[in-house]
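Let us practice reading a record.
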Amino acid sequence: DPLRMLKALRHFSTLEGFTLNKESKDAIRKYSPYIRGIAGERIKYEMDLILASNRPYEAIKVAEDTGVLYEIFPELLELKKFDEKYGLDLKTLDHTLLSLKYLKKWNRVSHLKEKGVIEVGYALIFHDLGKPRTFFFDKEKGVVHFFGHEKISMEISEKIMERLRFSHNQKRVVLELIRHHMWIFLLCKDTPTLRATKRLILKMGDLTPSLILLTLCDMFGTTQGKRNETTDRVLEYSKELIKMYRDFMIEPPPKIIDGYDLISLGYEEGPFLGQVLREIREKQATGEITDREQAIEYARERLRFQ
């Protein structure tokens, strides 16, 4: 059973004192292509256990060294080839894999359960897959950009998750984390305002702790675990953010309008109606909408041409 290759890596990551000898690694290297014949859900089951373990990074590095990682996620080969071609100081693949090393350590901020840690783990593996296709070098400034890489990463990731038979909800969570994985970094370029923080919490909802863990792992994967002024600023904000999130969950602001209100005014139920309601909640959290009349007026304006 070729799945035993992944089971060996899972035991390596979960069992204290368990090691893989050279013969075992050589065998995995030789037979790694056979993993492609295994059902996606069986591969995912073993990957879930690896990501939830105390040593996900170490196991994934062995998977990379033996080649079985690229049989499971051939999309990662594009990162490897990109690094080899351009030789940037920050290797995209190395950074991606190293970020897994910090899942357990920085979950002490987010306190996610196993399911949440696994989802963040996948988001870390997938979040920069779009970088090779969005690479841009500004010759005048001597700066590299990856504009819109989140969108491309999401497109690539969705195909991977379909192949590995992710549940609909897990796909949604992972894609949402990838979509917003730069949000906290961007806020921390300046001093985050209370309004911006409330907007993030309302937008991300229950995924706020997951986004925090993703951000911290991504960040320390970049710095190789080293602390500096920037990491300290992001870490401090993350701690403030998780506290505000918990306070918000305990006592969220009351809804000033809901779907029934809008349907009673003659608007049809549907996805766009839900989107408008979410926009109203965001503006309520930031103080842009303060009462029912303002909410209805905003909804009428947004729904006018629907």
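A brief commentary: Residues 259-303 form one domain.
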